[in-house]
């Protein structure tokens, strides 16, 4: 485990307990019966689902899904996915390491555009599922614009690790 190898589905009982994966257990539980009914590796299905899911967002690029990945034989170690409280340098370093040097900071920022359709499940447990920007149904650059705006209030209770003030009310 530790890459695009389907370990999150194969070892869901372990990996969905990792902090950055909180909330993915529900998605994996929905995907596992489909994987079991079809002749596809867990690794290929996860990549296929990601490409289709992203491509179906309004404004998103049409992504290709390539098959032939081998399934994981062991769970990924905890700590591989960057957390909301990590510094940009920590995130850049982790992604560069995971991509074996293929991702520089610019490509990492491009990768992070996926957060335009994402939500926070565990930053503030009292407010699970808050979107990261004001247009969660659109694949756009609003996430980056709103990240640069001065925050005025916390979207949740405040004081949680990884939580920052939002420029938007509510």
TrEMBL record:
<dbReference type="GO" id="GO:0000302">
    <property type="term" value="P:response to reactive oxygen species"/>
</dbReference>
<dbReference type="GO" id="GO:0020037">
    <property type="term" value="F:heme binding"/>
</dbReference>
<feature type="binding site">
    <location>
        <position position="140"/>
    </location>
    <ligand>
        <name>Ca(2+) 2</name>
    </ligand>
</feature>
<dbReference type="InterPro" id="IPR044831">
    <property type="entry name" value="Ccp1-like"/>
</dbReference>
<dbReference type="GO" id="GO:0042744">
    <property type="term" value="P:hydrogen peroxide catabolic process"/>
</dbReference>
<feature type="binding site">
    <location>
        <position position="116"/>
    </location>
    <ligand>
        <name>Ca(2+) 2</name>
    </ligand>
</feature>
<keyword id="KW-0560">Oxidoreductase</keyword>
<dbReference type="InterPro" id="IPR010255">
    <property type="entry name" value="Haem_peroxidase_sf"/>
</dbReference>
<keyword id="KW-0106">Calcium</keyword>
<dbReference type="GO" id="GO:0046872">
    <property type="term" value="F:metal ion binding"/>
</dbReference>
<feature type="binding site">
    <location>
        <position position="7"/>
    </location>
    <ligand>
        <name>Ca(2+) 1</name>
    </ligand>
</feature>
<keyword id="KW-0349">Heme</keyword>
<feature type="binding site">
    <location>
        <position position="133"/>
    </location>
    <ligand>
        <name>Ca(2+) 2</name>
    </ligand>
</feature>
<feature type="binding site">
    <location>
        <position position="5"/>
    </location>
    <ligand>
        <name>Ca(2+) 1</name>
    </ligand>
</feature>
<keyword id="KW-0325">Glycoprotein</keyword>
<dbReference type="Pfam" id="PF00141">
    <property type="entry name" value="peroxidase"/>
</dbReference>
<feature type="binding site">
    <location>
        <position position="135"/>
    </location>
    <ligand>
        <name>Ca(2+) 2</name>
    </ligand>
</feature>
<keyword id="KW-0408">Iron</keyword>
<comment type="similarity">
    <text>Belongs to the peroxidase family. Ligninase subfamily.</text>
</comment>
<protein>
    <recommendedName>
        <fullName>Peroxidase</fullName>
        <ecNumber>1.11.1.-</ecNumber>
    </recommendedName>
</protein>
<feature type="domain" description="Plant heme peroxidase family profile">
    <location>
        <begin position="29"/>
        <end position="170"/>
    </location>
</feature>
<feature type="region of interest" description="Disordered">
    <location>
        <begin position="150"/>
        <end position="170"/>
    </location>
</feature>
<keyword id="KW-0575">Peroxidase</keyword>
<feature type="binding site" description="axial binding residue">
    <location>
        <position position="115"/>
    </location>
    <ligand>
        <name>heme b</name>
    </ligand>
</feature>
<dbReference type="InterPro" id="IPR002016">
    <property type="entry name" value="Haem_peroxidase"/>
</dbReference>
<dbReference type="GO" id="GO:0034599">
    <property type="term" value="P:cellular response to oxidative stress"/>
</dbReference>
<feature type="binding site">
    <location>
        <position position="3"/>
    </location>
    <ligand>
        <name>Ca(2+) 1</name>
    </ligand>
</feature>
<dbReference type="InterPro" id="IPR001621">
    <property type="entry name" value="Ligninase"/>
</dbReference>
<dbReference type="GO" id="GO:0004601">
    <property type="term" value="F:peroxidase activity"/>
</dbReference>
<keyword id="KW-0479">Metal-binding</keyword>
